[in-house]
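User: quick one, fold this
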Amino acid sequence: MTATPGLFRSRDLFVHDGTKLRRIRLSLPVQAFLFALTVLLVGWSVFAAARIMTAPARPTVVVQGGGLKQLAAAAELRARAIEQRQELLAQMIAGGNVDPSALPETTTLAALPSEIAGPLARAEDKLAAEESAAAATLDERYRVATRELKKLGLSPNRLAVGGPFEPAAKADPTFKALFNSWKKLDQLQDSAIAVPADKPVRTAAFTSSFGVRSDPFRGSAAMHAGIDLAGPAGTPIYATAEGVVSSAGWHNGGYGNLIKLDHGRGIETRYAHLSSIAVRPGQRIKRGDVIGRMGSTGRSTGSHLHYEVRIDGRAVNPIPFMKSTDYLVAIRSRNGAAMDQVALGGPTKAQR
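Assistant:
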């Protein structure tokens, strides 16, 4: 800044304190600095005042009579609905049972002031994003489960009957999609108790596979409708899925003492050559229940279990249904060698 001779020039200030006379010199640079500082302060004050005067007025919520209580109740209702959705989301992901009547009702935020509606809306948007991600995860789990069932020759529609549950219209679309995804997977998982996915014998030697083999009695090729698992007489035999005993007793076709379990949806398992039977027709059985003891009755060369899985009356390979890989390891360990002929048997043909 260039000072003009008339505006800024050296000045002396004389101050007398009663005893002494003092002189203070104000040089030109000092006067210029003080002037600039004063201009800045005045300019900032004018700007701040203008901002305050031109700022839009904040909306004021006018509450009359019982309006305050109504706003508080509406905010509480919305917050409670968000909490309920969070709880239901956690239950669905954990695989727990969800009561459709607990579905929260969607309320409107229009009547709430922005100071209250804003945080609630942000919380709900975050929850909606989590619900969308959870629905996608459940859908993927359902697709994986259906692919595995199709490999076993089972249609998912056969197991998951009834279709997905459609919650009331009061629930918003995001939550309805999540609930339907969970219900669809839950129905499939509940129906899986009818799939014979357990081992009928805890410890046994695999002696004959499913399919065409050399008949142990005639020596010619014959269809073997199940698998043979050898073990000591009296070894416990377990139900491989939940079901109802449709038949239990002697069978003349070569099975000997035979148990048939009806698991519903066209799925049946058979347990043959038993030394004893521990169930009766019409009895409901759970997976893992002891239903009989291993033996060598009927068309058999030694103590073993002949185990079958049938779908709509057609015999299928039981091995893929078993959740344990013990039997598969036993099959692979043979390296193509001939099957052990000590404990073989079965009906003369695939009988119904």
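User: anything notable?
Assistant: Helices lie at 28-54, 67-94, 114-151, 156-159, 173-191, 326-332.
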